[in-house]
């Protein structure tokens, strides 16, 4: 197979692999879900793994589809150590937001908060190349997050499909985590460049 073809579609392969990992982990979601009482018991891995398990297969498929769309918007930015670092950092920020801002949340599963962060992070990373498109994405995302927080009934159909309440808190915390992740990595890049 031509190596250029593989490189061109690398993000599709990566997203497909991530989807299958998400699907496999879903069956063990009691071990990996964000569960505040278990985190207090020392199961700290849950602050990251919670974002990679789902309530059911539909939930995983919906998040996979969103990840695929995001990857297709920014295919050249998908494979980098910064991206992996940002996903981990966003997972930590979203879970930390739950811990301090929503201690009543108790449990959480799903990638949607991190996906909101990923979209913001990629929009900032690619802003210098496509400022209008990236600005448009951020405006649409802000509008979406505001709308679903002002009108929580707008998520009822999704709730019925995935079998759990849609955590709109994760969406706004996730969007903020994307901006914070970008700032951390930008500062790190500047420090490395001028060291």
Brief characterization of the structure:
With 195 residues, the protein is mostly helical.
Descriptive report:
32% of the residues are buried. This protein has helices spanning 3-8, 10-26, 29-32, 36-40, 46-49, 57-73, 81-101, 112-125, 131-150, 156-162, 168-193, and strands at 34-35, 107-108. The longest helix has 26 residues, at 168-193. It has a single domain, classed as Rhomboid-like (Rhomboid-like fold, Up-down Bundle), CATH 1.20.1540. 72% of the residues lie in helices and 2% in strands. A two-stranded antiparallel ribbon has the order 1-2. Helix 2 (10-26) packs antiparallel against helix 6 and helix 6 packs parallel to helix 8 (112-125). The protein is mainly α and 195 residues long.
Give unreliable regions as ranges.
Answer: none
Q: Please report the total strand number as a whole number.
A: 2
- Remind me, CATH topology? Rhomboid-like fold
- Percent helix: over 70%
Q: Globular, elongated, flat, extended or rod-shaped: what is the shape?
A: globular
- Measured between the Cα atoms of the first and last residue, the distance is 42 Å
Structural class: mainly alpha
CATH fourth-tier homologous superfamily: Rhomboid-like
Record keyword descriptors for this entry:
mainly alpha; Rhomboid-like fold; two-stranded antiparallel ribbon; 195 residues; 2% strand
Helices and strands in order, then pairings?
Elements: H1 3-8, H2 10-26, H3 29-32, E1 34-35, H4 36-40, H5 46-49, H6 57-73, H7 81-101, E2 107-108, H8 112-125, H9 131-150, H10 156-162, H11 168-193
Antiparallel strand pairs: 1-2
